[in-house]
Amino acid sequence: MEYPTNWRAVPIYPTRRTFPPLDAWVPRLEAWLPTYVTGYGNLVDVTLENGDRFYIGVHTKRMWEMVARYHLIDTGELKRRYRELHGMSQNVPLPVAPRRTVLAAFKSRATCRVGYKNDGAMGYIAVARIACIEEAAADRVHIHLRSGRILTHLPMSLRHCRSQVMRAENFYLHLLREGVIADGGWQRL
Predict the structure, then answer these.
(1) Closest of 51, 59, 55 to residue 5, by C-alpha
(2) Is 157 helix (H, G, I), strand (E, B) or coil?
(3) Beta strand pairing status for 94-96 and 101-110?
């Protein structure tokens, strides 16, 4: 079946019915970032480990829930454990035990509206798939992924970006120590 593409020839799956089967791409997920595509609106830009990309018509929160459900993760329990460890329950990292990685939240789009300092959209990146992080400006970073893709000008400082990675890894290790996840999968979550 032919799907529409944008000018870069990246496939667009605007509705849930048109998505490729989850088994075909969730196990190979490297990153997802919110984006705006003219003619389609807000979509999620998905990058796979082999460098393949496509856009799907969901919000990042729904994407987080889909990936968690695919890996049989109780999101309520995950948020509760993250809140206990870090004192916050937003932008919860998503540990993916079978792949021995954790998907960390990164600010990927800043607002242009005056007076909305902390308003922006969050994307998620598999920490194990980050090749390097470099500072582009005082409040911007480039993240190089192992697939070869470079996520440019993400609106966060290098310090905050590294903090997000450490917080996500810390959470993953905490779940391992607590016996919630094992080296190859989930135990009780």
Answers:
(1) 55
(2) coil
(3) antiparallel
Distance, in Å, from the CA atom of 83 to the CA atom of 102, rounded to the nearest integer, reads 17
Residue that is written with structure tokens 């082999």 in the block: 50
Range of the domain at 66: 1-128
Alpha-carbon gap, residue 40 to 81, rounded angstroms: 36
Q: Return the SS3 of 14.
A: coil
Domain count, the chain: 1
pLDDT in tens, 140-150: 999 999 999 99
Residue 120: per-residue pLDDT: 62
**What amino acid is encoded at 42 in this protein?**
N
Closest by Cα among 161, 122, 149, 184 to 48: 149
User: What size, in residues, is the chain?
Assistant: 189
Residue 25 host element (H or E): helix 22-25
- In a domain, residue 123? The reply is yes
Residue 60 to residues 31, 32, 34, 44, 170, Cα–Cα distance (Å): 11, 8, 6, 7, 23
Q: Is residue 151 part of a domain?
A: no
Q: Is 166 among the domain residues?
A: no
Flag whether 186 is in a domain: no
pTM: 0.86
